[in-house]
Amino acid sequence: MPFMPVKFNLQKRVKLAQGLWMIYWLSVIVGILIFSLGLFFKVELRKRSEMMDNNESHLVPNLLILVGLLAGGVSAFGGKVCHDSLDPVKFAKWKPMLKPYLLLCCGFNVLMLFTALLCFLMQFAVYLTLAEGLKNSIKFYKDTDTPGRCFMKRTLDMTQIEFRCCGNNNFRDWFEVQWISNRYLDMSNDLVKDRVLSNVEGKYLMDSVPFSCCNPGSPRPCIQHHLTNNTAHYDYDHRIEELNIWSRGCREALFAYFSSMMNSIGVLILFTIMLESLDMAGLKYLATALETMEDPENPECESEGFLLEKGVKETFADLFVKMKMLRGGNEVEGGEAAEAT
Amino acid sequence: MALMLVKFDMKKRVKLAQTIWFLYWFAVMAGVLVFSMGLFFKIELRKRSELMDNNESHLLPNVLILMGLITCGVNAFGGKVCYDSLDPSKFIKWKPMLKPFLMFCVGLNGLLFVTALLCFVMRIPLQYTLAEGLKNGMRFYKDTDTPGRCYMKRTLDLMQMEFRCCGNDHYRDWFEIQWVSNRYLDFSAKEVKDRIGSNVDGQYLMDGVPFSCCNPSSPRPCIQGQMTNNTAHYSYDHYTEELNVWKRGCREAMVSYYGGLMNTIGALVLLVTMLEIAVTIGLQYINSSLSSLVNPEDPESESEGWILEKTVGETFTDIMANMKAMSKGGKVEEAEAGVATVS
C-alpha cells in the first residue's frame, strides 16, 4: 500500500514538472540569498571584531556561506532533472542518480536544521564576547600611541555615534576608567595631581564622557564634563536630564543589532528547509509517476505517483532489516577474516 | 541614393530583429535605472532641504523621473514591434505606426540629451542655494525652541558628523555667531555679561565649536572650547593642530557630494541616450528592410535596409518643400475663407 498515492495523466505530469521547475529556481535564488546574507554577516563581524577582542566565532557565517552554495547547487541540479523529465530519452540518464540525490537532499535538510539552531543559540556567545570586548575597548580608548590599539579610540567613537550608545552598560562606565592619555595631562598641575592621587590605582578619573556620547537631538549644546555636578552648568539637573547624552549602553545596542540579524537569518533558513522538503516531495512524485507508466511507449498513459513505496512503518522496518543485514554481513566477514588469519 | 544602404537576406534579418529585441530589453532596464536615479536624487534633496532653506529646485529629479517612465514605455513598445517583425501577419498591424513612432523616438533622444546637459548645468544654482542655506542653518542652530526650526540643530549636527565637515567655509564660522541659546546662559554671571557687552550685536560669542565638529581620529580627546587659547590646554598649539576638528567646510563637502551625484547621473543618461540612438537606428533598418522586399510573398527574398530613403541633403529639401506646401495650402485656405467672409 503506497504512502499518499496520486493518479497522474499526461497533463498533470506536465503541470507538475513545470511547477516543480519554477520552485527549484526559487530555491536557487533563496540559496543565493542565504550565501549573500552569510557574507554580509561575516563582514559585519569583521568590522566590529576590534570591539570583540578579535576572538569572535566565525562558525555561523562560514556555515551559512557553505549552506547557501550547497542549496544553490542542489536546487540547480534538481531543476535540470525536472526540465529533462518530460523527455523520456533525456530522463533515462538521470534516473539512476535520483535515489542517491534524494538521500543527499535529506542529509542537506538536516544540515540546514542544525544551522538554523546554531543561528538562534550562538547569540549567547555573541553577547558574552561583546561584554568582554567592550570592557577592554573602553580600557584601551586612551592608548592611541600603542601599536595594535591606536585605532581603538576611532572605532569606539564611530560605534557610539552610529549605534547611539554610550559606555558598556551606561555612560557611568566612562567614569571608572582613565580615557585621557597621560601625554595630554599636565602632571605639574595641582588639580591633576590631586585627581591622580585620589584613587588607589593612580588613574586620572573624572565625571566626563567623550564627545561621541553626545545626543544631537538635545536642545542644548552637549554637556560632556562635570556631568554629576549640577552647579557647574546653568539650569542643569543631571537626575532628570535625558536628552543630553545617549542613555543606552553599547553592549545592548550592538547585541540588539546582531541578534535581530541572526534571528532573521534563522527564520529564512527554516523557510528554506520547508521549500526544500516541498522540492523533494515533488521530485519523488514526478520520478515515481514516470516510472509506473503502464505503457512505457505511450507517453499519454496514466500512472501513479507516491511518496513511499510501502507505508511509513513498513519502510522503517525494511530499513532496520537492511541495517541489521549490513552489520550481520560485517560480523560474518569479520569472522571469516579472523579465521583466515 | 539611400543613406548607409545594407543588403539583407532572411538570416540577416532574423539576426537583426533578435539583436534589436535584446537591446530593447536592455533599454527598458536603462529606463528603469534613469527613473530610480531621479527618485534617489529627489529623496536626497528632500533629506537636506532644511539646509537649503526649503527652496531648492526639484526640476532635475522630476525631469529624470518623467524621462525614465517615457523611455521605459517607448522601449517596451519597440521591443514588442521587434518581436513581431519576423511574423509578416503580425507586423502588418504595426507597419502604419512605425514612421510616427520613429519620429517620436528621435525627438525623445533629443530630450534625453538635453536632460544629460541639464544634469551638468544645474550644479551652479545648487551651489548658491547651498551657500545661502548653510549660512542660515548655522544662525538658527540655537533656536531649538522656535517652531519650524527646532530640528535645525539636530540636522546640522548629523550633517557635520556624516559629511565630516565643520562650519560653512571652516570651523571659524562658529566663532562669529551665537550658537548657545540664551535659555542656557546665566545672565547674572559676570563672565557672560562681559562677553555680551564686548560686541555690538549683544551676542554671546566664543571661540568654541559644537561637538559634531570633532574628529574621532584625533589621538587626544576633542578640544571644543577655547580653541584659540593655547594655554587653556596642555601641549596644544592651535596653529599646528590638524586632527582635532574637521578642517573641511560643509558647503564644500555638500557641493562635492551633490556635484559628484549629478555628474554620475549625467554620464549615465548620456550612455542611455547612445543606447536609445542605437535601437532607433536598428528599428529603422528593420522597418526599411521589411518594406523593401524584392518579392513580398516570399519571406526568404533579399531586401535592402537604410537609415534615410534619400541622402541627408535631399531629405532636408523634401521636408522644406513639404512645409512650404503646407503653409501655402494654409494661405490658400485663409484667402478662400477671407473671400467667403467678405462676400
Number of strands of chain A: 2
Ends apart, CA distance between termini of chain B = 50 Å
Number of helices of chain B: 8
Beta percentage of chain B is under 5%
Order of strands, main sheet of chain B, comes to 1-2
Unreliable stretches of chain A: none
| Interface with most residues | A-B, 30 and 30 residues
Q: Strand-residue fraction of chain A?
A: under 5%
Query: Treating each run of at least 4 consecutive H or I residues as one helix, how many helices of chain A?
Result: 9
Which class do the helix and strand fractions of chain B yield?
mainly alpha
Helix content of chain B: 55-70%
Report the mean per-residue pLDDT of chain A as an integer.
89
What is the H/E string of chain B?
A: EHHHHHHHEH
Global Rg of chain A: 32 Å
Strand line-up in the sheet with most strands of chain A: 1-2
Extended strand count of chain B: 2
Q: Kindly state the mean pLDDT of chain B as a whole number?
A: 88
| Coarse morphology of chain B | elongated
What do you see in this structure?
- The complex is a heterodimer of chains A (341) and B (343).
- With 341 residues, chain A is mostly helical.
- Chain A has helices at residues 10-47, 59-84, 88-94, 98-121, 123-139, 152-163, 190-197, 250-291, 312-340, and strands at 6-8, 303-305.
- A two-stranded antiparallel ribbon of chain A has the order 1-2.
- In chain A, helix 2 (59-84) runs antiparallel to helix 4 (98-121).
- The longest helix of chain A has 42 residues, at 250-291.
- The two termini of chain A are 48 Å apart.
- The model of chain A has no long low-confidence stretch (mean pLDDT 89).
- By secondary structure, chain B is an all-alpha fold.
- Chain B has helices spanning 10-47, 59-84, 88-121, 123-139, 152-163, 190-197, 250-291, 312-342; strands at residues 6-8, 303-305.
- In chain B, strands 1-2 form a two-stranded antiparallel ribbon.
- Chain B starts with 5 loop residues before the first strand and ends with a helix.
- The relative contact order of chain B is 0.15.
- The mean pLDDT of chain B is 88.
- The interface between A and B is medium-sized, with 30 and 30 residues.
